[in-house]
């Protein structure tokens, strides 16, 4: 989780304790849900009719500092007690160690909104399942600095992994953290380095046979490009816990979902994927999600308005009417709120959006019927995400 | 050669002359108190005491008793000088710091008296190094006036239990708070850092607890930056005694067993910190 974000969100639920993180540009989200059976004792507290179960977030570094040395933890710590004390404004972590020694840490926390990426693995056209080791062995061939990788399905059920190289039209994105600068206004035209000459770029491509996977159910000819960094983090966890990894993906632009399942643990990692600009049709299909004919959903990529809508809605898992994409400042004369072309949005520089990378925080969307404008359409998104201001 | 590489003949009159087959017996102990550049050395018939102080608040002493040395002769009642501890340690470890089994650096130390430099003759594998380190007027040392009759609370712990705790102390906290009490929490180390507060509790019946004599509940705070260097002494030691007096002065005494199984002591004295305002727990 620390590979993803600087803050750790703790949310006790009836079905277990959920630990979550999101990155600053909201294009990567992970959650670890520990079922009650994982614990010796699990008391999530009681939610009243008007109150939800209390949740909070803490600084990732502070939390990790308590579990600094894993080998010594294994040797000396018998039990760990986690108490959330809202009234004292403290998250208490108590380690019961050898020799009767007790280490108590009282961490300051912040209240927070529910951090939830909306995604649905059922809606993904393709699914792969492999032992973590197979994927780890594959990924090791790519340099550690590689930012993005493309996963594709090929003939004969083969699966390919290839390092992503920006095409001539775009700017170089290799070697840089893709989602590094929240709040930096994106410029309409890419600036510094000229695009790398394709002939001089090293390309690594790896093919995996179908039988390396535990299951393969993919739409032929599909491919997605996502960030390797966050994925590597999950991969090392999967390897260490010896769990098979399932990859759910759909079209470019739609999030890719990695899952790990165990009797007492459910892990999700949701990463935004690069939208396929090449296939940009001018079709007013969905709200700027992808230009391939997409199923019914509109995926807003505006977290702020979505979160606002979440707060103000009557609640319920269906979610509020999905706001459309005010990545652009509203220009009613120029655009139809119902159809948002990605190119327009890319060019319309709006401060506070993620930089000119084509990744978008797509997955904080909700399912809704197409063509329905949202009440939050006119909301101008200029500020950073709401959690950033706390 | 301008001077002889041979150690002086035993006929010459030196205020202090001592030999040690394994210089590490001295250097490892000195490292445990090396948090300032300079130290004051006091040699008496009982042995050598090296003192380091800081901020008029903390004092560390390393004791190497006479019987650790193969030869220890002192012509005056006591000999005292100030010397650069950094340079002394560099010289003692001039043949390197890694301890290969079977090899050791032999040391002969000579001090002619007031105003003379300290001479060190170091030999390993037939190679001899001669060092001359200038000495200075000794500083006046703090006297914590800490004697066993004034002790209010005392515990003796196996160092193993404290080592990790000290190494992982939250250094964003300005203070280390020590609570000693006949009741719970018995012995508690607390820090108040940026992330929040942390408490380490040792129960009186813990296997680590060799002795527990607490008569009164005392909570005292000490500047963590002053106490952190004691971690080195803790790492070397097998046992540590923690004592406080009525004013809250802290005495930490570390029992260190050297490679040959001989026992030496290092102690730290620290004043309580008066200026810290009450931190919320």
From TrEMBL, chain A:
Residues 171-199, 278-390 are annotated as: Disordered. One of its GO terms (biological process) is DNA replication checkpoint signaling. InterPro entries: DNA_clamp_sf, Rad9, Rad9/Ddc1. It holds the Pfam family Rad9. Residues 278-289 have a biased composition (Polar residues). GO terms for cellular component: checkpoint clamp complex. Residues 185-197 have a biased composition (Pro residues). Residues 336-348 have a biased composition (Acidic residues). Signal peptide: none annotated. The keyword Ion transport does not apply. This is Cell cycle checkpoint control protein RAD9A. It comes from Picathartes gymnocephalus.
Automatic annotation (TrEMBL), chain B:
The keyword S-adenosyl-L-methionine does not apply. One of its GO terms (cellular component) is checkpoint clamp complex. Pfam families: Rad1. InterPro entries: Cell_cycle_checkpoint_Rad1, DNA_clamp_sf, Rad1_Rec1_Rad17. GO terms for biological process: DNA damage checkpoint signaling; DNA repair. Keywords: DNA damage, DNA repair, Nucleus. SUPFAM superfamilies: DNA clamp. Component of the toroidal 9-1-1 (RAD9-RAD1-HUS1) complex, composed of RAD9A, RAD1 and HUS1. The 9-1-1 complex associates with LIG1, POLB, FEN1, RAD17, HDAC1, RPA1 and RPA2. The 9-1-1 complex associates with the RAD17-RFC complex. RAD1 interacts with POLB, FEN1, HUS1, HUS1B, RAD9A and RAD9B. Interacts with DNAJC7. Interacts with RHNO1; interaction is direct. Belongs to the rad1 family. Component of the 9-1-1 cell-cycle checkpoint response complex that plays a major role in DNA repair. The 9-1-1 complex is recruited to DNA lesion upon damage by the RAD17-replication factor C (RFC) clamp loader complex. Acts then as a sliding clamp platform on DNA for several proteins involved in long-patch base excision repair (LP-BER). This is Cell cycle checkpoint protein RAD1. The lineage of its organism: Eukaryota, Metazoa, Chordata, Craniata, Vertebrata.
């Amino acid at each position: 989780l620390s590979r993803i974000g600087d803050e750790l969100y703790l949310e006790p639920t009836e079905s277990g304790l959920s630990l979550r993180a999101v990155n600053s540009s909201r294009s990567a989200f992970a959650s670890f849900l520990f079922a009650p059976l994982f614990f010796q004792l699990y008391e999530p507290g009681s939610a009243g009719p008007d109150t939800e179960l209390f949740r909070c977030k803490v600084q990732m570094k502070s939390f990790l500092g308590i579990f600094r040395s894993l080998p010594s933890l294994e040797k000396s710590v018998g039990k760990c007690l986690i108490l959330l004390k809202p009234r004292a404004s403290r998250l208490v972590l108590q380690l019961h160690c050898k020799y009767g020694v007790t280490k108590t840490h009282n961490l300051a926390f912040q209240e927070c909104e529910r951090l939830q990426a909306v995604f649905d693995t059922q809606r993904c056209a393709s699914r792969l399942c492999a032992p973590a080791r197979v994927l780890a062995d594959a990924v090791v061939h790519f340099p550690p600095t590689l930012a993005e990788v493309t996963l594709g399905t090929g003939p004969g059920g083969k699966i390919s992994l290839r390092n992503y190289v920006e095409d001539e039209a775009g700017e170089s994105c290799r070697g840089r953290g893709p989602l590094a600068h929240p709040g930096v206004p994106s410029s309409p035209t890419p600036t510094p380095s000229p695009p790398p000459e394709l002939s001089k770029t090293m390309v690594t491509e790896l093919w995996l046979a179908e039988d390396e996977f535990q299951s393969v159910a993919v739409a032929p000819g599909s491919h997605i490009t996502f960030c390797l960094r966050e994925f590597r983090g999950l991969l090392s966890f999967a390897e260490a816990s010896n769990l098979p990894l399932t990859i759910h993906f759909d079209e470019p632009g739609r999030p890719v979902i990695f899952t790990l399942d165990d009797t007492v643990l459910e892990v999700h990692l949701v990463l935004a994927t690069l939208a396929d600009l090449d296939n940009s049709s001018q079709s007013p299909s969905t709200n700027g999600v992808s230009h391939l004919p997409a199923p019914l959903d509109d995926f807003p990529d505006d977290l702020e308005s979505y979160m606002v809508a979440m707060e103000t809605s009557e609640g319920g898992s269906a979610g509020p009417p999905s706001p459309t994409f005010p990545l652009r400042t509203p220009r009613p004369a120029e655009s139809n709120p119902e159809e948002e072309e990605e190119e327009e949005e890319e060019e319309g520089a709006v401060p506070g959006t993620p930089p000119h990378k084509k990744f978008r925080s797509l997955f904080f969307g909700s399912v809704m019927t197409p063509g329905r404008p949202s009440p939050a359409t006119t909301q101008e998104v200029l500020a950073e995400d709401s959690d950033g201001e706390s | 050669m301008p001077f002889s590489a041979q150690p002086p003949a035993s006929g010459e009159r030196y205020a202090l002359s001592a030999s040690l087959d394994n210089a590490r017996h001295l250097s490892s102990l000195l490292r445990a108190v090396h948090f300032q550049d300079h130290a004051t050395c006091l040699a008496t018939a009982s042995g050598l005491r090296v003192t380091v102080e800081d901020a008029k608040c903390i004092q560390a002493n390393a004791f190497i008793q006479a019987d650790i040395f193969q030869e220890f002769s002192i012509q005056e009642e006591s000999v005292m000088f100030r010397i650069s501890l950094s340079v002394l340690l560099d010289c003692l470890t001039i043949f390197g710091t890694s301890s290969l089994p079977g090899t050791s650096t032999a040391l002969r130390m000579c001090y002619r008296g007031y105003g003379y430099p300290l001479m060190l003759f170091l030999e390993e594998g037939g190679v001899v190094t001669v060092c001359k380190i200038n000495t200075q007027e000794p500083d006046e040392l703090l006297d914590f006036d800490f004697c066993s009759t004034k002790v209010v609370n005392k515990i003796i712990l196996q160092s193993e239990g404290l080592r990790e705790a000290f190494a992982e102390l939250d250094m964003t906290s300005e203070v280390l708070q020590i609570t000693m009490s006949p009741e719970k929490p018995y012995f508690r180390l607390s820090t108040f850092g940026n992330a929040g507060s942390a408490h380490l509790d040792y129960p009186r019946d813990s296997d680590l607890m060799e002795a527990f004599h607490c008569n009164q509940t005392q909570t005292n705070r000490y500047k963590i930056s002053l106490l952190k260097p004691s971690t080195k002494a803790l790492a070397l030691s097998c046992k540590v005694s923690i004592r406080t007096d009525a004013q809250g002065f802290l005495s930490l005494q570390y029992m260190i067993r050297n490679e040959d199984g001989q026992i030496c002591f290092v102690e730290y004295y620290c004043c309580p910190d008066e200026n810290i305002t009450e931190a919320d727990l």
